[in-house]
Amino acid sequence: MTGSHPYLVVIATISTLVSPLSCQNVSSGETGTKLNGSAVDFDSFREHFHRMYEVNGEEFNRRHLNFQNATKRHAYLNSLSTAPQSAKYGINRFSDLSQKEFRGLYLRASADRAPLFSGLKTEGLPAKFDWRDKAVVAPVQNQQACGSCWAFSVVGAMQSVHAIGGSPLAQLSVQQVLDCSFQNHGCNGGSPFRALTWLKQTRVKLVPQSEYSYKAETGICHFFSQSHAGVAVKNFTAHDFSGQEEAMMGQLVEHGPLAAIVDAVSWQDYLGGIIQHHCSSQWSNHAVLVVGYNTTGDIPYWIVQNSWGTTWGNEGYVYIKIGGNVCGIADSVAAVFL
Ligand SMILES: *[C@@H]1O[C@H](CO)[C@@H](O)[C@H](O)[C@H]1NC(C)=O
Ligand SMILES: *[C@@H]1O[C@H](CO)[C@@H](O)[C@H](O)[C@H]1NC(C)=O
Ligand SMILES: *[C@@H]1O[C@H](CO)[C@@H](O)[C@H](O)[C@H]1NC(C)=O
Ligand SMILES: *[C@@H]1O[C@H](CO)[C@@H](O)[C@H](O)[C@H]1NC(C)=O
Ligand SMILES: CC(=O)N[C@H]1CO[C@H](CO)[C@@H](O)[C@@H]1O
């Protein structure tokens, strides 16, 4: 499933191209109901997402062009969505960003190579499994205009594994990882594996989110004494499960939610449903948390928590077809041990 298409051009240089003003408003469209894509004009879009740019000003014209390009992309992306449960693409709060801007703001995970998984598949797996049913998955968060997905995926895995171990589900500080994981680049991006390596080597304890709250910008690392309560990583595994997604299902059930990196270029336009097409496995650029799967229907799928707020996708989640390494979901997958 490597079908890329003319609109999904890879843009190698990642730079922040958007003015801080529009960044703010890119991340502020969290209220109200979601536009569902069909026949939305630019005026309705601006009203819905509170875009204040001056009519016919330079920014207005540029955003209008991006918007028109987005609607063209949607027609293309939807052309293969034939089954009712297939992914739908359309207008959302990202629709006035160019693809390059979107990448620069949201897709800031660097690719990690992991060794091919060589273990066995687990026998007797349930046909569907969802860690949310066990109340060990924290609510969907919003990274806002900060390239911090790599930290959200790692912290998401840690807080779930902590809760699976019997502790009350608590949100841990993403900001602490952003500020303190010095081999990464804060809001300018990072790698989940480097963050996990840092956590394992330093045994830094992540404090609750309430004590070190998320700012959506890189700050100065706060240190806590060793006696301060927090959660540390003992170990982690990282594997490539491409061609072995059933074994990956076993890891999920045995160890808890998994941190994974994906190619999320087409997610700019995603509204919901199961992604089967238009999602390559070649250029990973985003990090997420795999929390479950469902193989009972015609199209088996992964249940994946994203960090773009609850108005994106299926209440903040994305479904990805199992098999074929769609979006590179199986390319490098980490399980954490606390
Ligand atoms: C999208 O919105 C239109 C008009 O509001 C509505 O008729 C249609 O059923 C909606 N489609 C979906 C998939 O929700
Ligand atoms: C919009 O699409 C056209 C043609 O597909 C392309 O040439 C142009 O660069 C795109 N504009 C932006 C702002 O992405
Ligand atoms: C960490 O995990 C790796 C891979 O499973 C294993 O080889 C290693 O012994 C573990 N280390 C510790 C300290 O548990
Ligand atoms: C699993 O998938 C089936 C088929 O698509 C669907 O009917 C069912 O609601 C799903 N189960 C859960 C728990 O989401
Ligand atoms: C700079 C700018 O346009 N800011 C606007 C962003 O959107 C909010 C509403 O969500 C407006 O109040 C701001 O004026």
TrEMBL record:
Leader sequence residues: 1-23
InterPro entries in the cross-refs: Papain-like_cys_pep_sf (IPR038765), Pept_asp_AS (IPR025661), Pept_cys_AS (IPR000169), Pept_his_AS (IPR025660), Peptidase_C1A (IPR013128), Peptidase_C1A_C (IPR000668), Peptidase_C1A_papain-like (IPR039417), Prot_inhib_I29 (IPR013201)
Keyword field: Disulfide bond, Glycoprotein, Hydrolase, Lysosome, Protease, Signal, Thiol protease, Zymogen
Residue ranges annotated for the Cathepsin propeptide inhibitor domain, each copy included: 42-102
Family annotation (SUPFAM superfamilies): Cysteine proteinases
PROSITE patterns on file: THIOL_PROTEASE_ASN (PS00640), THIOL_PROTEASE_CYS (PS00139), THIOL_PROTEASE_HIS (PS00639)
Major localisation: other
EC number annotated for this UniProt entry: 3.4.22.42
GO MF annotation terms: cysteine-type peptidase activity
Keyword Hydrolase: yes
Gene3D superfamilies attached to this UniProt entry: Cysteine proteinases (3.90.70.10)
GO CC annotations on file: lysosome
Enzyme class: hydrolase
Annotated localization: Lysosome
Record-annotated Peptidase C1A papain C-terminal domain positions: 125-337
Biological process (GO), any one: proteolysis
Record's keyword annotation contains Lipoprotein: no
Reactions this protein catalyses: The recombinant human enzyme hydrolyzes synthetic endopeptidase substrates including Z-Phe-Arg-NHMec and Z-Arg-Arg-NHMec
Primary role: Proteolytic enzyme possibly involved in normal cellular protein degradation and turnover.
Entry similarity comment: Belongs to the peptidase C1 family.
Matches recorded under PANTHER family: CYSTEINE PROTEASE FAMILY C1-RELATED (PTHR12411)
Protein name in UniProt: Cathepsin O
Organism: Oplegnathus fasciatus
